[in-house]
Design brief:
Distance between the termini: 69 Å
Oligomer: single chain
Helix content: under 10%
Number of helices: 1
Strand content: over 45%
Protein backbone atom coordinates (compact mmCIF):
# COMPACT_ATOMS: atom_id res chain seq x y z
CA UNK A 1 0.00 0.00 0.00
CA UNK A 2 2.00 2.98 -1.24
CA UNK A 3 1.59 6.63 -2.10
CA UNK A 4 1.38 6.85 -5.88
CA UNK A 5 2.09 9.74 -8.25
CA UNK A 6 -0.45 9.64 -11.09
CA UNK A 7 0.99 10.23 -14.59
CA UNK A 8 -0.74 12.80 -16.78
CA UNK A 9 -1.80 10.27 -19.38
CA UNK A 10 -4.07 8.41 -16.98
CA UNK A 11 -7.61 9.65 -17.49
CA UNK A 12 -9.33 10.00 -14.14
CA UNK A 13 -10.24 8.40 -10.90
CA UNK A 14 -13.79 7.25 -11.54
CA UNK A 15 -15.88 7.01 -8.43
CA UNK A 16 -19.44 5.91 -8.02
CA UNK A 17 -20.87 9.42 -8.37
CA UNK A 18 -20.12 11.44 -11.54
CA UNK A 19 -19.31 14.58 -9.52
CA UNK A 20 -16.46 12.79 -7.77
CA UNK A 21 -13.95 12.77 -10.56
CA UNK A 22 -10.40 13.98 -9.98
CA UNK A 23 -8.58 14.51 -13.23
CA UNK A 24 -5.01 13.39 -12.87
CA UNK A 25 -1.95 15.52 -13.50
CA UNK A 26 1.63 15.57 -12.28
CA UNK A 27 0.60 16.98 -8.88
CA UNK A 28 -1.98 14.36 -7.97
CA UNK A 29 -0.95 11.78 -5.36
CA UNK A 30 -2.94 8.74 -4.30
CA UNK A 31 -2.77 6.26 -1.46
CA UNK A 32 -4.25 2.77 -1.32
CA UNK A 33 -5.58 0.33 -3.91
CA UNK A 34 -7.94 1.56 -6.58
CA UNK A 35 -11.14 -0.43 -7.13
CA UNK A 36 -13.42 0.25 -10.07
CA UNK A 37 -17.13 -0.32 -10.03
CA UNK A 38 -17.71 -4.04 -10.67
CA UNK A 39 -20.69 -6.20 -11.45
CA UNK A 40 -23.08 -5.68 -8.57
CA UNK A 41 -24.35 -8.48 -6.40
CA UNK A 42 -28.11 -8.39 -5.89
CA UNK A 43 -29.70 -7.57 -2.54
CA UNK A 44 -26.64 -5.79 -1.10
CA UNK A 45 -26.90 -2.54 0.82
CA UNK A 46 -24.85 0.09 -0.98
CA UNK A 47 -21.74 1.41 0.75
CA UNK A 48 -21.66 4.98 2.03
CA UNK A 49 -18.77 7.17 3.15
CA UNK A 50 -18.39 10.64 4.66
CA UNK A 51 -15.17 12.65 4.89
CA UNK A 52 -14.17 15.14 7.60
CA UNK A 53 -11.00 16.87 8.74
CA UNK A 54 -9.49 17.12 12.21
CA UNK A 55 -11.48 19.75 14.07
CA UNK A 56 -13.51 20.32 10.90
CA UNK A 57 -10.71 22.59 9.71
CA UNK A 58 -11.02 23.72 6.08
CA UNK A 59 -7.96 26.00 6.00
CA UNK A 60 -4.34 25.09 6.62
CA UNK A 61 -0.99 26.69 5.91
CA UNK A 62 1.70 25.58 3.49
CA UNK A 63 3.71 22.67 4.86
CA UNK A 64 1.23 21.95 7.66
CA UNK A 65 -0.48 18.60 8.12
CA UNK A 66 -4.04 17.61 8.91
CA UNK A 67 -5.67 14.29 9.74
CA UNK A 68 -8.62 13.32 7.55
CA UNK A 69 -11.28 10.90 8.76
CA UNK A 70 -13.89 8.72 7.09
CA UNK A 71 -17.14 7.34 8.40
CA UNK A 72 -17.98 4.32 6.24
CA UNK A 73 -20.71 1.72 6.18
CA UNK A 74 -20.73 -1.49 4.13
CA UNK A 75 -22.99 -4.52 4.10
CA UNK A 76 -20.95 -6.73 6.40
CA UNK A 77 -23.79 -9.24 6.68
CA UNK A 78 -23.23 -10.07 3.03
CA UNK A 79 -19.48 -10.32 3.43
CA UNK A 80 -18.55 -6.75 2.50
CA UNK A 81 -15.19 -5.31 3.64
CA UNK A 82 -14.30 -1.62 3.37
CA UNK A 83 -11.30 -0.66 1.21
CA UNK A 84 -10.18 2.95 0.95
CA UNK A 85 -8.42 4.77 -1.88
CA UNK A 86 -7.34 8.40 -1.38
CA UNK A 87 -6.21 11.06 -3.83
CA UNK A 88 -5.18 14.70 -3.40
CA UNK A 89 -4.66 17.23 -6.17
CA UNK A 90 -1.58 18.71 -4.42
CA UNK A 91 0.55 17.92 -1.40
CA UNK A 92 1.19 14.49 0.12
CA UNK A 93 -0.81 11.70 1.74
CA UNK A 94 0.65 9.52 4.48
CA UNK A 95 -0.60 6.44 6.28
CA UNK A 96 -1.75 7.11 9.82
CA UNK A 97 -0.12 4.41 12.02
CA UNK A 98 -3.32 4.21 14.09
CA UNK A 99 -5.37 3.36 10.99
CA UNK A 100 -3.52 0.89 8.76
CA UNK A 101 -6.81 0.19 6.96
CA UNK A 102 -6.64 3.79 5.64
CA UNK A 103 -9.92 4.77 7.30
CA UNK A 104 -8.01 7.93 8.20
CA UNK A 105 -4.87 9.47 6.70
CA UNK A 106 -2.58 12.44 7.17
CA UNK A 107 -2.68 15.13 4.52
CA UNK A 108 0.44 17.32 4.16
CA UNK A 109 -0.04 20.59 2.33
CA UNK A 110 2.41 21.68 -0.37
CA UNK A 111 5.60 23.07 1.11
CA UNK A 112 5.15 26.38 -0.69
CA UNK A 113 2.23 28.17 -2.32
CA UNK A 114 2.25 31.74 -3.62
CA UNK A 115 -1.43 32.43 -3.01
CA UNK A 116 -4.50 30.87 -1.44
CA UNK A 117 -5.03 27.54 -3.20
CA UNK A 118 -8.02 25.21 -3.07
CA UNK A 119 -7.01 21.56 -2.95
CA UNK A 120 -9.51 18.76 -3.43
CA UNK A 121 -9.00 15.50 -1.51
CA UNK A 122 -11.11 12.49 -2.53
CA UNK A 123 -11.67 9.17 -0.80
CA UNK A 124 -13.11 6.16 -2.61
CA UNK A 125 -14.78 3.34 -0.69
CA UNK A 126 -15.07 -0.12 -2.19
CA UNK A 127 -17.00 -2.84 -0.39
CA UNK A 128 -15.40 -5.81 -2.21
CA UNK A 129 -18.80 -6.81 -3.58
CA UNK A 130 -18.64 -4.70 -6.70
CA UNK A 131 -19.91 -1.44 -5.32
CA UNK A 132 -17.94 1.78 -5.01
CA UNK A 133 -18.80 5.06 -3.29
CA UNK A 134 -16.84 8.22 -2.65
CA UNK A 135 -16.62 11.67 -1.14
CA UNK A 136 -14.53 14.78 -1.68
CA UNK A 137 -13.32 17.56 0.62
CA UNK A 138 -11.90 20.96 -0.34
CA UNK A 139 -9.05 22.44 1.70
CA UNK A 140 -7.81 26.01 1.43
CA UNK A 141 -3.99 26.03 1.55
CA UNK A 142 -2.60 29.48 2.39
CA UNK A 143 0.93 30.86 2.28
CA UNK A 144 2.42 31.67 5.68
CA UNK A 145 3.08 35.28 6.55
CA UNK A 146 6.01 35.59 8.94
CA UNK A 147 6.54 38.42 11.39
CA UNK A 148 9.33 39.51 13.70
CA UNK A 149 9.76 41.14 17.09
CA UNK A 150 12.72 43.24 18.16
CA UNK A 151 13.76 45.40 21.03
CA UNK A 152 16.27 46.02 23.82
CA UNK A 153 16.91 44.74 27.31
CA UNK A 154 17.60 47.33 30.00
CA UNK A 155 18.51 47.28 33.65
CA UNK A 156 16.69 49.53 36.12
CA UNK A 157 19.17 52.36 35.42
CA UNK A 158 18.44 52.37 31.70
CA UNK A 159 21.65 50.64 30.67
CA UNK A 160 21.35 47.98 28.00
CA UNK A 161 22.10 44.33 28.83
CA UNK A 162 24.22 42.36 26.32
CA UNK A 163 24.56 38.59 25.92
CA UNK A 164 21.09 37.81 27.31
CA UNK A 165 18.90 35.13 25.66
CA UNK A 166 15.42 36.26 24.61
CA UNK A 167 12.88 33.57 23.70
CA UNK A 168 9.52 33.56 21.90
CA UNK A 169 7.71 30.39 20.80
CA UNK A 170 10.85 28.28 20.77
CA UNK A 171 12.86 30.89 18.82
CA UNK A 172 15.83 32.34 20.71
CA UNK A 173 18.03 35.35 20.06
CA UNK A 174 20.89 36.69 22.19
CA UNK A 175 21.20 40.43 22.70
CA UNK A 176 24.22 42.04 21.04
CA UNK A 177 26.69 44.43 22.65
CA UNK A 178 24.02 47.14 22.54
CA UNK A 179 21.37 44.98 24.24
CA UNK A 180 19.43 44.59 20.98
CA UNK A 181 17.63 41.43 19.88
CA UNK A 182 15.51 40.41 16.89
CA UNK A 183 13.49 37.22 16.45
CA UNK A 184 12.24 36.32 12.97
CA UNK A 185 9.92 33.72 11.44
CA UNK A 186 7.06 34.10 13.89
CA UNK A 187 3.55 33.26 12.80
CA UNK A 188 0.64 35.44 13.81
CA UNK A 189 -0.58 34.53 17.29
CA UNK A 190 -0.27 35.10 21.02
CA UNK A 191 3.03 34.25 22.69
CA UNK A 192 5.04 34.69 25.89
CA UNK A 193 8.30 36.62 25.57
CA UNK A 194 10.97 35.77 28.14
CA UNK A 195 14.52 36.88 28.83
CA UNK A 196 17.16 35.65 31.25
CA UNK A 197 20.63 36.45 32.51
CA UNK A 198 22.49 35.75 35.72
CA UNK A 199 21.84 38.47 38.28
CA UNK A 200 18.70 39.83 36.60
CA UNK A 201 14.98 39.21 37.02
CA UNK A 202 12.89 39.61 33.87
CA UNK A 203 9.13 39.29 34.13
CA UNK A 204 7.75 37.31 31.14
CA UNK A 205 5.23 39.30 29.12
CA UNK A 206 2.39 38.26 26.84
CA UNK A 207 2.64 39.59 23.28
CA UNK A 208 0.53 39.42 20.13
CA UNK A 209 2.28 38.95 16.80
CA UNK A 210 0.55 39.78 13.54
CA UNK A 211 -0.65 42.42 11.12
CA UNK A 212 -0.92 45.91 12.66
CA UNK A 213 0.59 44.71 15.95
CA UNK A 214 3.51 46.40 17.68
CA UNK A 215 6.71 44.51 16.91
CA UNK A 216 9.12 46.58 19.02
CA UNK A 217 9.13 45.15 22.54
CA UNK A 218 11.74 46.00 25.16
CA UNK A 219 12.14 44.58 28.66
CA UNK A 220 13.42 46.22 31.82
CA UNK A 221 14.94 43.97 34.45
CA UNK A 222 13.81 44.10 38.03
CA UNK A 223 16.47 44.63 40.67
CA UNK A 224 18.71 41.68 41.51
CA UNK A 225 17.31 39.24 44.03
CA UNK A 226 17.17 40.93 47.47
CA UNK A 227 18.53 39.37 50.63
CA UNK A 228 15.34 37.85 52.03
CA UNK A 229 14.21 34.46 53.20
CA UNK A 230 11.90 33.02 50.52
CA UNK A 231 9.23 30.47 51.31
CA UNK A 232 6.12 28.84 49.89
CA UNK A 233 2.97 28.12 51.90
CA UNK A 234 0.50 25.33 51.15
CA UNK A 235 -3.03 26.74 51.27
CA UNK A 236 -5.79 24.12 51.26
CA UNK A 237 -3.54 21.21 50.22
CA UNK A 238 -2.88 22.22 46.59
CA UNK A 239 -2.85 26.04 46.41
CA UNK A 240 0.52 27.78 46.76
CA UNK A 241 1.48 31.20 48.09
CA UNK A 242 5.04 32.53 47.93
CA UNK A 243 6.15 34.96 50.65
CA UNK A 244 9.28 36.55 52.06
CA UNK A 245 10.68 37.16 55.54
CA UNK A 246 13.07 40.08 56.09
CA UNK A 247 15.45 39.14 58.92
CA UNK A 248 16.93 42.65 58.90
CA UNK A 249 13.62 44.44 59.47
CA UNK A 250 12.04 42.83 62.52
CA UNK A 251 11.28 39.69 60.50
CA UNK A 252 8.75 41.52 58.35
CA UNK A 253 6.61 39.11 56.33
CA UNK A 254 5.23 39.98 52.88
CA UNK A 255 3.28 37.97 50.33
CA UNK A 256 5.15 37.50 47.08
CA UNK A 257 2.65 37.64 44.24
CA UNK A 258 -0.82 36.15 44.24
CA UNK A 259 -2.08 32.71 45.24
CA UNK A 260 -1.30 30.01 42.66
CA UNK A 261 -4.43 27.90 42.71
CA UNK A 262 -3.97 24.21 41.95
CA UNK A 263 -0.18 24.23 41.52
CA UNK A 264 0.80 22.36 44.72
CA UNK A 265 4.33 23.76 44.98
CA UNK A 266 6.22 21.52 47.42
CA UNK A 267 9.87 22.53 47.02
CA UNK A 268 11.91 25.70 46.70
CA UNK A 269 15.56 26.65 46.30
CA UNK A 270 17.72 29.37 44.80
CA UNK A 271 20.75 29.18 42.50
CA UNK A 272 23.95 29.89 44.45
CA UNK A 273 25.46 32.40 42.00
CA UNK A 274 22.74 33.94 39.82
CA UNK A 275 20.06 33.94 42.59
CA UNK A 276 17.38 32.51 40.31
CA UNK A 277 14.58 31.07 42.41
CA UNK A 278 13.26 27.62 41.41
CA UNK A 279 10.18 25.73 42.56
CA UNK A 280 8.83 22.23 41.97
CA UNK A 281 5.35 20.72 42.20
CA UNK A 282 3.93 17.84 44.19
CA UNK A 283 1.40 15.31 42.96
CA UNK A 284 -1.81 17.23 43.72
CA UNK A 285 -1.25 20.02 41.24
CA UNK A 286 -2.04 20.86 37.64
CA UNK A 287 1.42 19.74 36.51
CA UNK A 288 2.71 17.11 38.97
CA UNK A 289 6.48 16.97 39.28
CA UNK A 290 7.16 20.00 37.06
CA UNK A 291 9.93 22.56 37.57
CA UNK A 292 9.39 26.34 37.50
CA UNK A 293 11.38 29.55 37.74
CA UNK A 294 10.05 32.17 40.16
CA UNK A 295 10.60 35.92 39.88
CA UNK A 296 11.97 36.97 43.26
CA UNK A 297 10.33 40.41 43.03
CA UNK A 298 6.76 39.61 42.04
CA UNK A 299 6.44 35.83 42.55
CA UNK A 300 5.53 35.20 38.91
CA UNK A 301 6.23 31.62 37.87
CA UNK A 302 7.46 30.56 34.43
CA UNK A 303 7.39 26.92 33.42
CA UNK A 304 10.69 25.09 32.85
CA UNK A 305 9.63 21.49 32.20
CA UNK A 306 8.64 18.08 33.49
CA UNK A 307 11.09 16.25 35.76
CA UNK A 308 9.41 12.99 34.68
CA UNK A 309 8.89 12.19 38.36
CA UNK A 310 5.39 12.42 39.81
CA UNK A 311 6.09 14.36 43.01
CA UNK A 312 9.06 16.52 44.02
CA UNK A 313 9.34 17.09 47.79
CA UNK A 314 12.69 18.85 47.92
CA UNK A 315 15.16 20.96 45.90
CA UNK A 316 18.74 21.95 46.71
CA UNK A 317 21.62 23.43 44.70
CA UNK A 318 25.27 22.57 45.14
CA UNK A 319 27.87 25.35 45.23
CA UNK A 320 28.56 24.70 41.55
CA UNK A 321 24.92 25.21 40.57
CA UNK A 322 23.81 21.58 40.12
CA UNK A 323 20.18 21.17 41.15
CA UNK A 324 19.24 18.09 43.16
CA UNK A 325 15.74 17.03 44.06
CA UNK A 326 13.87 14.43 46.05
CA UNK A 327 11.20 12.45 44.20
CA UNK A 328 8.58 11.04 46.55
CA UNK A 329 8.80 7.24 46.77
CA UNK A 330 11.65 7.08 44.21
CA UNK A 331 14.71 8.78 45.64
CA UNK A 332 17.40 11.34 44.98
CA UNK A 333 17.52 12.91 41.50
CA UNK A 334 19.50 15.50 39.54
CA UNK A 335 17.47 18.06 37.59
CA UNK A 336 18.42 19.93 34.42
CA UNK A 337 17.48 23.57 35.08
CA UNK A 338 17.15 24.27 31.34
CA UNK A 339 14.70 21.47 30.52
CA UNK A 340 13.43 20.30 33.91
CA UNK A 341 14.34 16.70 33.12
CA UNK A 342 15.31 14.62 36.17
CA UNK A 343 17.69 11.66 36.45
CA UNK A 344 17.53 9.17 39.33
CA UNK A 345 20.80 9.00 41.28
CA UNK A 346 19.91 7.05 44.45
CA UNK A 347 16.79 4.91 44.75
CA UNK A 348 15.04 5.30 48.13
CA UNK A 349 11.36 4.89 48.93
CA UNK A 350 11.29 6.51 52.39
CA UNK A 351 9.05 9.56 53.06
CA UNK A 352 11.72 12.26 52.78
CA UNK A 353 10.17 15.76 52.98
CA UNK A 354 13.05 18.05 51.92
CA UNK A 355 16.80 18.18 51.29
CA UNK A 356 19.62 20.73 51.55
CA UNK A 357 23.35 20.69 50.81
CA UNK A 358 25.83 21.89 53.40
CA UNK A 359 27.83 25.02 52.56
CA UNK A 360 30.83 23.02 51.37
CA UNK A 361 28.80 20.81 49.05
CA UNK A 362 30.07 17.68 50.82
CA UNK A 363 26.94 16.38 52.56
CA UNK A 364 23.33 16.46 51.47
CA UNK A 365 20.92 16.52 54.41
CA UNK A 366 17.35 15.29 54.36
CA UNK A 367 14.60 14.62 56.86
CA UNK A 368 12.51 11.45 57.14
CA UNK A 369 9.88 11.15 59.88
CA UNK A 370 11.67 14.02 61.66
CA UNK A 371 15.00 12.14 61.64
CA UNK A 372 17.95 13.73 59.86
CA UNK A 373 19.53 11.85 56.95
CA UNK A 374 22.98 12.51 55.49
CA UNK A 375 24.06 11.57 51.98
CA UNK A 376 27.78 11.40 51.16
CA UNK A 377 28.15 11.61 47.36
CA UNK A 378 31.76 10.45 47.46
CA UNK A 379 30.95 7.22 49.27
CA UNK A 380 27.45 7.08 47.75
CA UNK A 381 26.10 6.31 51.23
CA UNK A 382 22.82 7.49 52.78
CA UNK A 383 22.77 7.25 56.59
CA UNK A 384 20.41 8.21 59.42
CA UNK A 385 21.86 10.62 62.00
CA UNK A 386 21.28 10.46 65.73
CA UNK A 387 19.22 13.64 65.67
CA UNK A 388 15.42 13.78 65.79
CA UNK A 389 13.52 17.02 65.30
CA UNK A 390 10.59 17.20 67.75
CA UNK A 391 7.13 18.75 67.78
CA UNK A 392 5.50 18.21 64.40
CA UNK A 393 6.25 17.10 60.89
CA UNK A 394 9.26 18.82 59.29
CA UNK A 395 8.51 19.83 55.70
CA UNK A 396 11.22 22.31 54.66
CA UNK A 397 14.99 22.50 55.13
CA UNK A 398 17.62 25.09 54.25
CA UNK A 399 21.28 25.51 55.18
CA UNK A 400 22.26 28.85 56.73
CA UNK A 401 25.63 30.49 56.02
CA UNK A 402 26.76 29.72 59.59
CA UNK A 403 26.18 25.98 59.12
CA UNK A 404 22.96 25.74 61.08
CA UNK A 405 19.94 24.02 59.60
CA UNK A 406 16.82 26.09 59.05
CA UNK A 407 13.52 24.19 59.07
CA UNK A 408 9.74 24.62 59.23
CA UNK A 409 6.92 22.47 60.58
CA UNK A 410 3.65 21.30 59.06
CA UNK A 411 0.50 23.03 60.42
CA UNK A 412 2.52 25.24 62.74
CA UNK A 413 0.08 27.59 64.49
CA UNK A 414 2.64 30.36 64.17
CA UNK A 415 4.97 31.15 61.32
CA UNK A 416 8.06 29.99 63.16
CA UNK A 417 11.71 30.02 62.32
CA UNK A 418 13.55 27.00 63.68
CA UNK A 419 17.33 26.62 63.55
CA UNK A 420 19.24 23.47 64.41
CA UNK A 421 22.87 22.92 65.36
CA UNK A 422 23.51 19.68 63.49
CA UNK A 423 26.40 18.31 65.57
CA UNK A 424 24.72 18.86 68.95
CA UNK A 425 21.11 18.63 67.73
CA UNK A 426 20.37 21.79 69.75
CA UNK A 427 17.38 23.81 68.54
CA UNK A 428 16.55 27.54 68.53
CA UNK A 429 13.02 28.78 67.77
CA UNK A 430 11.58 32.17 66.91
CA UNK A 431 7.81 32.53 66.40
CA UNK A 432 6.21 35.09 64.07
CA UNK A 433 2.46 35.14 64.46
CA UNK A 434 1.09 36.68 61.29
CA UNK A 435 -1.95 36.57 59.00
CA UNK A 436 -1.79 38.40 55.67
CA UNK A 437 -4.77 38.94 53.37
CA UNK A 438 -6.71 36.31 55.28
CA UNK A 439 -3.99 33.70 54.63
CA UNK A 440 -2.40 32.18 57.71
CA UNK A 441 1.09 31.09 56.74
CA UNK A 442 1.22 27.97 58.89
CA UNK A 443 2.11 25.24 56.38
CA UNK A 444 5.49 26.06 54.84
CA UNK A 445 6.51 23.54 52.17
CA UNK A 446 9.81 25.01 51.01
CA UNK A 447 12.32 27.68 52.06
CA UNK A 448 15.31 29.25 50.28
CA UNK A 449 18.07 31.57 51.43
CA UNK A 450 19.98 33.52 48.70
CA UNK A 451 23.51 33.37 50.08
CA UNK A 452 25.07 35.24 47.16
CA UNK A 453 22.54 38.07 47.42
CA UNK A 454 23.14 38.37 51.15
CA UNK A 455 26.93 38.78 50.89
CA UNK A 456 26.91 41.35 48.07
Amino acid sequence: MLTKKIPTQILAIILAMPLLVVYADDNVVCLGDNYEQGLPIPNVNLPTVSLTSEGNVAKIYEGDSLTLFTNATVDTQNGANPNFYWCAEQGQLEIDPTAPDLSQVKYIAPAEVTENTWVRVVVQLSDGLGYVSGKSLFLNVSPITYYFVEGYLYNKYGHTIPDAPVEVAGHTAVTDENGYYKINELRAGNYTLTASKDGYNFTPIEITVGENETNTISLISDDPTPCLLYAVHDEGKKHSQFFTVNPFNAFEVKLLGSLYKGYDIEALDIHPTNNQLFAAAGDDGLQPGHLYKVNSWNGQMSHVGDTNFHEINGLSFTQEGTLWGWAEGEGLIQIDTETGNGTLEIAYDGPVEDITWDNEGLILYGVENNTLLAYNPQAIVLTKLNCTLPDGEVEALEMLPDGRLLFSLHDDETLSIHALEIDSCDRLDMAIDVTLNEIKLNDVEGIAWPIEACIR
